[in-house]
Amino acid sequence: MFQRIYQKTWLLVMTLILGISLIGKAQEKSEEVAPLKAGYHEIQSKQASGILKKHKEVVILDIRTEKEYTAGHIQKAKWLDYYQDDFKAKLAKLDRKKPYLVHCASGGRSGKSMQLFRDLGFTRVYHMNDGFRGWEKAKLPAEKGKPKSPAK
Predict the structure, then answer these.
(1) pTM of the model
(2) Are 98 and 124 in contact (CB under 8 A)?
């Protein structure tokens, strides 16, 4: 009789251990980060913040003027002034296979630049269409300071 109780107890314990193990594996898989989709995407600041937290490979491209950038920008943002005569040439030098988060102050300049990204063959571009103003309004982290150099 004790042997039967022992066998049933052992079977129950092993089933529980296996179940807990499978639940742990399922949670690990759900925490894996899905790759960024190819194409051109319109997003808001809060979505952009989430993408930046999960995808460290995203290049943040701030296309405002140097004065605007210096007054406040997203940490690690690369600067490339939309109004400079060589904007297209500098943009063409960037790695087209990297994912980019592009923004200006309110979405106007960056919205206009989307066709240029397409024409140049960029494969993954996220347009933050509420711009840096939306970023600030959402109280997301920013820093001040001059750009070290234009985006490369």
Answers:
(1) 0.78
(2) yes
